[in-house]
Amino acid sequence: RRMFPTIRVSFSGVDPEAKYIVLMDIVPVDNKRYRYAYHRSSWLVAGKADPPLPARLYVHPDSPFTGEQLLKQMVSFEKVKLTNNELDQHGHIILNSMHKYQPRVHIIKKKDHTASLLNLKSEEFRTFIFPETVFTAVTAYQNQLV
């Protein structure tokens, strides 16, 4: 399923002449499992987290962007798909249901001489975390009002 609401970001301070790759990943916030308490209309800790699933990076399909493009437009991650299927072969981001997650956006300044990303450690990159984007992954709506 596609993630909702969609993560959308804008960038400043980039070199208009350089090329950039924009990625997103989603990491666990803690080592807890949650349940939704209908009578309280709130999330409660329900125990220890399930083992973490394989981490996947989602490379924005329009990457690489020029710095000029990034300065002019919003980058939207509307095509990101999430799944709880550990055997997923489609490149979706795999999450455990009823666990809390934090999306992270990464921007990598691409070196001219590299055709692809070979080694992230040799690239210039920044990671951005927005605390207001923390969410609990679910397979069904947990609120009776929805």
Percent of sequence in beta strands: 35-45%
CA-atom Rg in angstroms: 17 Å
- Helical residues, percent: under 10%
- Domain count: the total is 1
| Number of helical elements | 1
CATH architecture: Sandwich
Largest sheet: 6 strands, antiparallel
CATH class category name: Mainly Beta
How many DSSP E strands? 12
Shape, principal axes of CA atoms: elongated
CATH level-4 homologous superfamily: Transcription factor, T-box
Q: What do we call the CATH topology?
A: Immunoglobulin-like
The stretches of 5 or more residues where confidence is low (pLDDT under 50) are none
Name the average pLDDT: 89
Following the backbone from N to C, one meets helices and strands in this order, namely: EEEEEEHEEEEEE
Walk me through the topology:
Elements: E1 8-9, E2 19-28, E3 32-37, E4 42-48, E5 58-59, E6 65-66, H1 67-72, E7 75-76, E8 82-83, E9 93-94, E10 100-110, E11 124-129, E12 135-136
Parallel strand pairs: 8-9
Antiparallel strand pairs: 1-7, 2-5, 2-6, 2-10, 3-4, 10-11, 10-12
